[in-house]
Amino acid sequence: MRSLFVLEGSIEMAAEDKSQKLEMMRHSASHIMAEAVKSLFPEAKFAIGPAIEDGFYYDFDLTRSLAAEDLPAIEARMKEIIAANTPFTHEEISAKEALKLFAGQPYKVELINDLAEDKVSIYKQGGFTDLCRGPHIKASGEIKAFKLTSVAGAYWRGDEKRPMLQRIYGVAFAKQADLDEYLQRIAEAAKRDHRKLGKELDLFSLHEEAGPGLVYWHPRGAMVRQIIEDFWKVEHRRRGYDIVYSPHIAKVHLWETSGHWNFYRDNMYSPMVIDEIQYVIKPMNCPFHILMYKTQLRSYRNLPMRYAELGTVYRYERSGVLHGLARVRGFTQDDAHIFCRPDQLEAEVKDVVELAQFMMKSFGFEEYEMMLSTRPEKYTGTLESWDMATAALRNVLEKLQIKYQVDPGEGVFYGPKIDIKLKDALGRTWQGPTIQVDFQLPERFDVNYVGEDGHEHRTVMIHRTVLGSMERFFACLTEHYAGAFPLWLAPVQTVLIPIADRHVDYAAKLLAEMRARDIRAQLDERSERMNLKIREAQLNKIPYMLIVGDKEVENGTVSVRMRNGEDLGSLSFSGFLERIESLIKSRELAKL
RNA sequence: GCCAGCGUAGCUCAGUGGUAGAGCAGCUGUUUCGUAAACAGCUGGUCGCGAGUUCGACUCUCGCCGCUGGCUCCA
């Protein structure tokens, strides 16, 4: 339908909103790229080429591998096509004709057959014809600003068992200024990459020789983590969670009971043998919490019970997917398992969703996506229980009037879930908080409570994290603030900078006072120039620099400089303490 | 795991078929200074690992490991 508007001209076009127009232009750019590839690689087989956020891609099957060096030639050819302003024409032809037309194009043939329609839509521009629903721009000259950005492998139809194609990514905008702005933004984003900042700010490291995907938290990164964890613990106690600790390994038998050995084995490490019994390192904490729950007969009066644990788990991740702290092989989940009655499920889910929102807000994340993930292909349990759990999750989202998207088939094997996705500096999304209903584990472990009627009933379980994992959350947090952590999270909150060696004694007194008050302060007592100390403190993104010289020693003051360069001038030390303590207490999030 | 690219000093990077350089960092000395880098000297690398080609490999070839961008998969 939309394609008709385009063909009919400008009146309807004006009604189309800007983003649709951009999307159409990007989609058209992918066709033009395909045409360029066709002229440079006549033997190319074409797969698909949609518009995506900021741009487009097209997947090709070529006789040789593309490298980044091939892009300029393709771009140049595209520019010729655009300069020629060749029209896009639309046609509806019979599937039979289409099969003939795309005879040498196996991927197109597959698409036509899968469509199973009598008529298919095709678009033609210059020397390139594509099977396509459209709509498209009127002529290639409408592409104003584009750039090819990268080449990558991509499986045909996203299936790793099918051929790997070569994908070329590009970006396209309505005008050159927008493209320039985009490229600028990407360059800026690269500067806040947590992997880069992790090194620069001495937050963490990973070691090839010790094993990929295993994280070493340096003192400063560890400090931030401790603050997050302390905050997390307090907020959980307040909400009726009990904090627990569990071991790191368990007998394979336990994982057989839980079903992980069947459904999750690909992500689990090989067993180790202890006294002739096989043990594996835990990929999840749930079975452990269940064992604790089951140590007593539980009454309906005691439910819900909420076991929370900062539980470190190890999962095998294929080598190609590891990514700094955002995707690792050993990580600590801010996990909890809620054991409740079916009638409590919805209220519990609601509390968890609200807690997750509170956490996001506390750490300054304003933008995140809520996803409702439904039943996957591989699953345990009955359809009825899946429907019931899914409905409970949906109800909570609706009642809280939260905007969410449905991710069909993305649930875990034991139940549906609500996920919160956080964005990194480059706009890639990472799954953070997750709330998963589980009717299966209680069955497998025979988890019960004694009801009002004196009989045993099946307990319902909720798995949930409200940050995700410490590693991934810390990665996103670092990128969100470009390493300039808010005052309450900053590993070093203030640094004392004596101007000359004779000021060190005074500075040391202030240091002791601040440390006594739990302010994370440091003293830079090196015999270096003040300018150097300021520069280094600035590069380390330390929120407050306290410069002390003759004047300050004499008056009992500090000269306060903030990391954004702002000079607050001379403050009485007590005045400064008052200021910083109140900002820390309020968990101020200002980005300085 | 798959496709492509990359791997040189602690960091950021230059370099060549004839056995390696810069800046910063580090160390030593001098300097004691008012809001983003004082000055001088010194140290530092089996050029990711292992084979192969070659008179000779950091450079060319192959394999492996790791990293980067994607794909698949997931907190």
Low-confidence runs of at least 5 consecutive residues: 1-12
The spatial strand order of the largest sheet comes to 11-15-16-23-20-19-17-18
Structural class by secondary-structure content: alpha+beta
Instruction: Report the major sheet.
Output: 8 strands, mixed
What is the alpha-carbon Rg in Å?
29 Å
Secondary structure tally, helices: 20
Report the count of strand segments.
28
- N-to-C span: 50 Å
Shape: globular
The percent range for helix content is 25-40%
Strand content: 25-35%
What is the mean predicted local confidence, pLDDT? 92
Note the main attributes of this structure:
28 strands; disordered N terminus; alpha+beta; 592 residues; RNA-binding; 5-stranded antiparallel β-sheet; 8-stranded mixed β-sheet; 20 helices
